[in-house]
């Protein structure tokens, strides 16, 4: 089946090729229209004639089809015997269309002829016709118009028509392709009405522009006038003498004149003043209402009726007559700190009020005060609008006057308020309004307020030259301050005014608008191994462009491992501890404000490393310290007893011990040894003091002991010794000593001839050693009788004449080994 279909397709393709070749060999049809270019929207008739010699139609049953832009259109035969087929297009609305004639055999059609038809419009109506009179030689009237949309391949001709009030008419033909024409002087009337229009013509019709009613002189642009002289006839006025250019000097009619005057002093309101009026050339124009003593720059321009303005003339300068200053000044007086040497440091600010007139270019101010009712003292003469001076304590008013070469203004009295400890305003805040203004608001602190003073200054400029102020009413707690520079810091202060003084100031700093800082700080590095400290300086105030909200430090190593550290706005340094030795790092500091951020330059640095010398410096002390620690620990464990006795010396408790237990070795363990003893040392705390003295010294000691405050009753002592139940005998002392010796033995000769000393051995009932009591309770003192053999005595007792050695042996002498060592032989 597919093979059969391919064969049929090949036969049809061969037939079509033969058919096409035959058509190309000889024309079979002719397509005809009255014109290939027709008006847009008109009717178009076309016919297709099939020739008899056409090979396609010989002995063939055929039919004809006509197509308009590939759209089949019904056709009719003109006669049954002829071969002409006709069509009619009632509305040709395409700018370009193709008409085709097809001969069809069965289901196959072929184009035997084709024709392209174009549609065209009449020329568009010319628009925006204007004419301007040129008064420079040669005098011409230049007329221009807009031709509208250009027609394709259709030539259009234009003509300029000028008609006067009479029957006179002029027709001017511009050059091909030009849409303007210069009418010569012969076809122009300056002060009469002219009617002007343009006509466009092409092959399909014509069109005419709107007729313009023209007064030529009203279209003329005059040359710039010339100011011949500016005079000063009276106060506040300038007289201008002027004329037209030489080529236009023939004009004598009144012209509209405009004079622009601009003051040349930037301190005064720098605004232009324009005066308009009608005047004839060569006349004098007087302009009044000017400032006195001011240099003005004058320029002038003219026009005829509603015509265009001329250019401004060359400027001319003149000075108005000078007068003394008038009006009052707005003042603000501040006392800076407490008085020193009976003088305040004062600062006076002022500005002109709306009624103030300087009346001169050079103006100075005089600040003075009355020291006495008849003596006025000037403290400041300046051309600025502020003054700082010393004010005596007793002065209550300050006087301010403005002065020029013509005179001096009336004085402005300024009261001096000395009390400044009054309440300030509350909740002062600033809100940006625009790039050049801010809104300042606050809350009144007291109903006794009489007004406010708002003061602001540029923080980056000199304080004395940039302070501005505004005096406000007591009911006004907000103000919009304009004329500020964006991205610059300003300091705003508000003072509350009371009847008795000025309140403390409330100050806040603000920006009208913020953006990223202009510069970024430069990073500084400081090594203290193994760390790095990054630091930077603060950005200058004029380059911050806003409040610094913080910093960010970015740093990354060779492997692009990035870390970020956020830093508060007040901090200007950071220590980095996570750096790897021998690694190269790149650092970047980003500075941020509320308006944006700025990145600084990238700085590369290697992380600090520890060299061999530093390793030795670290390791040697560490090793020595470990060795000493080891030795100390070893010594502690090996010499436990010695260390224990050194740190915690054993002090016997006399209440829970006896002399028998106090061996000489144990009692002397805690006594430091001295290489050289120059004086006898008295040993306390359970030790016997053995003093060897001369007879004279012994006599002094004996006398001293006899005169001591210790009281001794021998009978009571004997009773107390014999009866243990009455051992609570006390010895009174006038003053208790902090330390009480337990035993003192004094000897200077043979033991048997030693005198009996006063009692010196006391035993305390307290369990705490070395502590005295308010009422000490000690055993009775004992003394040894010189005639008794020490070896025969085994306890202390009183010396009686009938004392028997056998009866008093109650205890062995071994209980007192130290006493035993003192035994002497006859």
Short summary:
The chain has 826 residues and is mainly beta.
Structural features, described:
GO terms for molecular function: cytokine receptor activity; molecular sequestering activity. It comes from Electrophorus electricus. Residues 424-517, 518-610 form the Fibronectin type-III domain. By secondary structure, this protein is mostly beta strands. The chain folds into 8 domains: 20-120, Sandwich (Immunoglobulin-like), CATH 2.60.40; 127-219, Immunoglobulin-like (Sandwich); 226-319, Immunoglobulin-like; 329-412, Immunoglobulin-like (Sandwich), CATH 2.60.40; 420-511, Sandwich (Immunoglobulin-like); 524-606, Sandwich (Immunoglobulin-like), CATH 2.60.40; 614-648; 655-826, no CATH class. It has 10 helices and 51 strands. A 5-stranded mixed beta sheet has the order 2-9-8-4-5, covered by helices on one side. Strands 12, 13, 15, 16 and 17 form a 5-stranded antiparallel beta sheet that branches. Strands 27, 28, 30, 31 and 32 form a 5-stranded antiparallel beta sheet that branches. A hairpin with a 5-residue loop joins β34 and β35. 17% of the residues are buried. Mean pLDDT is 75; it is low at 1-26, 666-670, 674-679, 681-693, 703-753, 770-778 and 780-811.
The coarse overall form would be flat
Report on the biggest sheet: 5 strands, mixed
Helix percent band: 10-25%
Gyration radius (Cα, Å) is: 65 Å
Which stretches of 5+ consecutive residues score pLDDT under 50?
1-26, 666-670, 674-679, 681-693, 703-753, 770-778, 780-811
Strand order of the largest sheet: 2-9-8-4-5
Number of domains: 8
Strand content: 35-45%
Class of secondary structure makeup: mainly beta
Mean pLDDT across the residues is 75
Please provide the count of β strands. Answer: 51
Summed up, the helix count is 10
Distance between the termini: 171 Å
């Amino acid at each position: 089946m597919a093979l059969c279909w391919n064969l049929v397709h090949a036969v049809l393709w061969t037939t079509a090729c033969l058919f096409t070749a035959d058509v190309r060999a000889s024309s079979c049809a002719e397509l005809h229209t009255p014109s290939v270019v027709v008006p847009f929207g008109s009717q178009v008739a076309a016919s297709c004639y099939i020739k008899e010699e056409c090979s396609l139609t010989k002995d063939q049953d055929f039919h004809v089809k006509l197509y308009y832009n590939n759209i089949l259109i019904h056709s009719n035969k003109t006669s049954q015997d002829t071969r002409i087929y006709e069509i009619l297009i009632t509305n040709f609305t395409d700018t370009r269309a193709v008409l085709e004639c097809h001969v069809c055999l069965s289901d196959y059609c072929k184009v035997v002829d084709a024709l392209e038809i174009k549609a065209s419009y009449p020329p568009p109506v010319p628009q925006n016709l204007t004419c301007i009179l040129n008064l420079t030689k040669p005098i011409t009237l230049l007329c221009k118009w807009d031709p509208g949309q250009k027609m394709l391949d259709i030539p259009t001709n234009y003509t300029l028509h000028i008609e006067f009030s009479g029957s006179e008419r002029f027709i001017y033909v511009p050059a091909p392709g030009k849409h303007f024409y210069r009418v010569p002087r012969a076809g122009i009337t300056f002060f009469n009405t002219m009617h002007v229009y343009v006509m466009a013509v092409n092959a399909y019709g014509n069109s005419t522009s709107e007729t313009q009613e023209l007064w030529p002189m009203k279209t003329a642009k005059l040359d710039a006038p010339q100011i011949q002289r500016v005079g000063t006839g009276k106060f506040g006025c300038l007289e201008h003498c002027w004329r037209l250019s030489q080529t236009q000097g023939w004009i004598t009619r009144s012209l509209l004149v405009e004079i622009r005057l601009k003051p040349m002093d930037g301190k005064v309101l720098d605004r232009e003043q324009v005066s308009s009026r009608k005047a004839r050339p060569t006349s004098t124009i007087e302009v009044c209402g000017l400032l006195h003593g001011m240099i003005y720059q004058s320029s002038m321009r003219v026009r005829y009726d509603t015509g265009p303005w001329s250019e401004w003339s060359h400027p001319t300068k003149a000075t108005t007559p000078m007068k003394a200053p008038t009006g009052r000044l707005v003042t603000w007086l501040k006392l800076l700190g407490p008085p020193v040497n009976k003088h305040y440091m004062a600062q006076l600010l002022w500005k002109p009020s709306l009624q103030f007139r300087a009346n001169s270019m050079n103006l100075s101010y005089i600040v003075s005060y009355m020291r006495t009712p008849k003596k006025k003292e000037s403290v400041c003469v300046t051309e600025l609008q502020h003054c700082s001076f010393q004010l005596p304590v007793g002065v209550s008013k300050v006087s301010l006057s403005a002065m020029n070469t013509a005179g001096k203004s009336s004085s402005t009295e300024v009261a001096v308020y000395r009390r400044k400890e009054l309440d300030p305003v509350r909740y002062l805040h600033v809100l940006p309004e625009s790039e050049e203004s801010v809104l300042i608001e606050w809350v009144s602190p007291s109903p006794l307020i009489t007004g406010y003073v708002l003061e602001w200054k540029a923080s980056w400029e000199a304080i004395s030259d940039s302070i501005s102020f505004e005096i406000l009413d007591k009911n006004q707690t907000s103000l919009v301050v304009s004329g500020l520079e964006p991205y610059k810091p300003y300091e705003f202060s508000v003072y509350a005014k009371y009847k008795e003084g000025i309140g403390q100031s409330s100050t806040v700093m603000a920006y009208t608008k913020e953006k990223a800082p202009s510069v970024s700080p430069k990073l500084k590095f400081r090594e203290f191994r193994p760390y790095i400290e990054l630091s930077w300086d603060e950005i200058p105030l004029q380059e911050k462009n806003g409040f610094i909200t913080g910093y960010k430090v970015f740093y990354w190593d060779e492997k692009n491992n990035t870390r970020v550290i956020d830093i508060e706005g007040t901090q200007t340094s950071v220590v980095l501890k996570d750096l790897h030795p021998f690694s190269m790092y790149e650092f970047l500091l980003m500075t941020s404000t509320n308006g944006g951020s700025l990145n600084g330059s990238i700085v590369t640095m290697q992380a600090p490393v520890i060299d061999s010398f530093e390793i030795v410096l670290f390791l040697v002390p560490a090793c020595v310290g470990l060795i000493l620690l080891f030795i100390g620990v070893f010594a502690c464990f090996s010499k436990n007893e010695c260390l224990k006795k050194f740190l915690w010396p054993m002090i016997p408790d006399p209440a829970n011990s006896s002399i028998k237990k106090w061996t000489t070795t144990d009692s002397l363990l805690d006594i430091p040894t001295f290489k050289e003893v120059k004086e006898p040392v008295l040993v306390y705390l359970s030790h016997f003091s053995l003093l060897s003295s001369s007879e004279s010294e012994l006599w002094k000691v004996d006398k001293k002991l006899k005169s001591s405050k210790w009281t001794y009753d021998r009978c009571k002592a004997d009773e107390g010794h014999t009866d243990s139940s009455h051992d609570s005998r006390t010895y009174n002392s006038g003053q208790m000593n902090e330390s009480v010796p337990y035993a003192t033995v004094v000897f200077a000769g043979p033991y048997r001839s030693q005198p009996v000393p006063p009692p010196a051995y006391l035993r305390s009932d307290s369990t705490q050693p070395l502590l005295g009591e308010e009422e000490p309770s000690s055993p009775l003192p004992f003394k040894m009788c010189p005639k008794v053999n020490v070896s025969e005595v085994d306890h202390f007792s009183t010396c009686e004449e009938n004392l028997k050695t056998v009866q008093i042996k109650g205890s062995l002498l071994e209980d007192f080994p130290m006493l035993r060592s003192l035994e002497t032989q006859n």
